[in-house]
Amino acid sequence: MQPVSKSELKEMKELYDKHIRKPSSKKLKKKFPHRPGVEDAGSAWVSKKELLELLEHNDANGLRIHYGCHHKSTHDNPLHDCDGLHNVILVATRDEVNPDNPTCENSIDHLKDEDEIKATLAGTESKGMFFGAGGDTLPLCPPNCTNKTDV
């Protein structure tokens, strides 16, 4: 990971808005006419506590960020519903080749199907709610903006 300045971040966000978010928002408005003001997401937020839980519950030494789209309703209020919006899915990873210096090339997603999780945990103490799972349903902006960002 490389550091990025505030001005570089602003420029990247503006390009994303122009080429991806705004065209996607136009498509969403056509697909969901019953959701006034629907716009695609431009950011997501997650707490340090949740990130650490995801990593610790999976004995992870890395994190992969997948891009996706919500495929079902997430809220009863259409103003807060994320159905159809771009999202990010956080997945804990583990590099067994060099655990002290993990790399993308050697890191494996720690995802399990529900049946695998049940079988692994059968008769044992729970390993936490994120064991074998990715993290999703992060607060997306829009629709859940707090206006606390200056980029």
Secondary structure elements and their pairing?
Elements lengths: L5 H26 L11 E2 L3 H10 L4 E8 L16 E10 L11 E3 L4 H8 L18 E2 L10
Antiparallel strand pairs: 1-5, 2-3, 3-4
Bulk shape: globular
The total count of helices amounts to 3
Radius of gyration: 18 Å
Which bin fits the share of residues in helices?
25-40%
- Sketch the major β-sheet: 3 strands, antiparallel
In which order are the strands of the major sheet placed? 2-3-4
| Total count of domains | 1
Please give the number of β-strands.
Answer: 5
Class from secondary-structure proportions: alpha+beta
Proportion of residues in β-strands:
15-25%
Mean pLDDT reading? 84
User: What are the low-pLDDT stretches, counting only 5+ consecutive residues below 50?
Assistant: none
Instruction: Give the termini distance in whole angstroms.
Output: 20 Å
The helix/strand order is: HEHEEEHE
Q: What would you note in describing this structure?
A:
With 151 residues, the chain is of the alpha+beta class. It has one domain (6-141). It contains three helices and five strands, in the order H-E-H-E-E-E-H-E. It has helices at 6-31, 48-57, 114-121, and strands at 43-44, 62-69, 86-95, 107-109, 140-141. The longest helix is centred in the N-terminal third of the chain and has 26 residues, at 6-31. The mean pLDDT is 84.
